[in-house]
What we know:
By secondary structure, the protein is an all-alpha fold. It has one domain (24-203). It is 65% helix and 0% strand. The protein is built from 8 helices and no strands. Helix 1 packs across helix 7 (159-176) and helix 6 packs across helix 7.
Amino acid sequence: MSSTAKPPVSVSAEAFPLTTLPDPSQLDNIKAQLDLVLMALEALTGIGSEAMLQAAAELNVESLVADRVALWRLRQSSPLRKGQGGRKKLDVEEARALVLISCHLAKEHQELIRRAVALLEQVTEQHQEPHQTALLGDYLDTFSNTYQERMEDGEEVSPPMLTNLALKLLIDLLFYSAANGPRRLWLALLDRTQSRKASALGQK
């Protein structure tokens, strides 16, 4: 019987197209978005740093995300986070590694993500509130509590805004759990940074 095991994934320029290097402000936005994606995964699945480090090892990117401290520093580097303990610089290869880890974990929990998104579609069609279901209610409460605890503006963001953010991230996770998830997430990150940059230039 032939083996169907796939070789370990590496950080590949082909999987992550990059015509120009993101500038520091764009990397800041990428850091923030990646941290939110991982936060949504944590809130829905209950995973923690051990699962993320295990994913890094399976993907052969443990040199970039070596241990709990390294992972914490990468995530704490998000400009949205409270405190100044994290390293403020995140390079492109580290960002790509976090993309791989995020999508690997999303794929591992694809069934749960699909169930949550299907439930969201159902309650939307029935004009019900997502909080009224156990799965979505637990996810939204956990995400909101985590955001308020970790983020600088946590106490200022209204509950409806946090709910909208959590639900958008949930739907995004479904796309990132697909086979081409890493490419989708990377292109989305670049597109968002370019859009914000263009908007900022337009305001000058």
